[in-house]
Amino acid sequence: MRQSLALLVYDRRYGVDTAEFADLSEFGLDHPERVYYSPAHSVP
């Protein structure tokens, strides 16, 4: 739970959402071999 809270604080502080999938073409990073960002579960 502590780590989840830390990630939420990080996301709010920097205005990002690190817990969701992201289409890389939205960031100009599109390439046939790169399709999306998938968040990884962190290990405590």
Chart the SSEs and their pairings.
Layout lengths: L1 H13 L7 E2 L12 E2 L7
Antiparallel strand pairs: 1-2
Helical content class: 25-40%
Main beta sheet: strand number and arrangement? 2 strands, antiparallel
Low-confidence stretches: none
Query: What is the chain-wise order of helices and strands?
Result: HEE
Number of helices: 1
- Helix/strand-derived category reads alpha+beta
Estimated radius of gyration: 13 Å
Fraction in beta strands:
5-15%
Strand order of the largest sheet: 1-2
Average pLDDT, all residues = 78
How far is the first residue's CA from the last residue's CA?
10 Å
Shape: elongated
Total E-strand runs = 2
Describe it.
This protein has 44 residues and is α+β, with helices and mostly antiparallel strands. The protein has a domain at 19-44. The protein is 30% helix and 9% strand. The protein has one helix and two strands, in the order H-E-E. It is elongated, with a radius of gyration of 13 Å.
